[in-house]
Amino acid sequence: MNVAGTWDLTVSTPIGTLQAVLELHDKDGELTGVAHGAGEEVALTDVALDGDRLSWRQAVTRPLRLNLAFAVTVEGDTLAGTSRAGRLPASKVTGSRRAAAPADGA
């Protein structure tokens, strides 16, 4: 399964709904990426794909300083799952992959 691309995420948290952009890259079979949201860009760690289950970790400082662990199921160009921050309740995560930009001269 190919999960590389740009994903628009919605995270429903106890403090409100947050929007984020996830950029995933596949370099020689290794997944890497960054997340953009709340005015910051953070690198993803422990990015793993097992079948249709995608997981990663990231540390954020806005709106609060938190270490987040994401676990989602990918189905085509959509994903759904949860994000956890320590002992806080899980937050619902949904997302959709952006369409690839056309190549120059297409």
Task: Give a count of the beta strands, DSSP E runs of length 2 or more.
Answer: 9
Tell me the number of structural domains: 1
CATH superfamily: Quinohemoprotein amine dehydrogenase alpha subunit, domain 2
Distance between the termini: 26 Å
What value does the Rg take, in angstroms? 14 Å
Helical amount among residues, as a percent range? under 10%
Order of helices and strands: EEEEEEEEE
The top level CATH class name: Mainly Beta
Q: Kindly state the mean pLDDT as a whole number?
A: 92
The strand line-up of the biggest sheet is 4-3-2-1-9-8-7-6-5
Strand content: over 45%
By DSSP (H or I, 4+ residues per run), the number of helices equals 0
Task: Examine the secondary-structure arrangement and name the CATH architecture.
Answer: Beta Barrel
Low-confidence segments, given as residue ranges, are none
Quick overview:
It is built from no helices and 9 strands.
Can you describe what's shown?
The chain is mainly β. The chain has a single domain, classed as Quinohemoprotein amine dehydrogenase alpha subunit, domain 2 (Lipocalin), CATH 2.40.128.120. It is 0% helix and 67% strand. Strands 4-3-2-1-9-8-7-6-5 form a 9-stranded antiparallel beta sheet, with no helix packed on it. The radius of gyration is 14 Å and the shape is globular. The mean pLDDT is 92.
Secondary structure blueprint with pairings:
Blueprint: E1 5-13, E2 16-27, E3 30-37, E4 40-43, E5 45-50, E6 53-60, E7 66-75, E8 78-84, E9 91-97
Antiparallel strand pairs: 1-2, 1-9, 2-3, 3-4, 5-6, 6-7, 7-8, 8-9
Search tags:
Lipocalin; mainly beta; 106 residues; nine-stranded antiparallel beta sheet
